Amino acid sequence: MITVDVSQVLKELKEYHKEMVIRLENMVRIFAYNVAYSAIQNTPIGDYANGTKKYKSYYDARKPPLPQIEGLARGNWQYYRQGQGRLQILAGEASGDAALDTFQGKSLAYQLGQTFYIGNFAPYIESLEGNTSWQTEGNGIMKPTLDTITSIYQFNLPMYYKANILN
User: Fold this and answer.
1) By the 8 A CB rule, do 91 and 64 touch?
2) Closest CA to 79 of 102, 47, 59
3) Is-contact 90 75, C-beta < 8 A?
């Protein structure tokens, strides 16, 4: 009779599985962060702060709680689970940075296999997508963002998998 103790192999497989899950979750988080970053960068900021105030009438028409300054669309890119997305009041020139920080914090809850969304709940986001801003150069927001997603997917996922893992 031959006996084999596979307890060490089993232990190593469990450790490998745990590390792989952590790496895959981290890969998804980094990928999502870069998608959100791209969407934010492709979203027009408005002109309130630069003094031209070309779109001042749009800001003046906003009713509370909407702020009467630029950046609300950039500040609304977010990570959310189904049914949890809602307008977030992040505005101003740094609204994209604030949205990205919030996005990163929320994405830490991601677990492998979960479905999440990257979306924007600014009331006029569709108008911006329809090229109402000179800043989109006729491309809207999604086309350049999707181009970035394709590039990330094709070239960066292996690098994201190998990135330092979060425990």
Assistant:
1) no
2) 102
3) yes
pLDDT in tens, 1-20: 988 888 998 999 999 999 99
pLDDT digits (tens, 9 = 90+) for 85-133: 999 999 999 999 999 999 999 999 999 999 999 999 999 889 888 876 7
Length of the chain: 167
Is the dihedral angle over the CA atoms 97, 161, 142, 38 positive or is it negative? Answer: positive
Q: Give the residue among 30, 133, 115 at the shortest CA–CA distance from 74.
A: 133
Say what the pTM is: 0.85
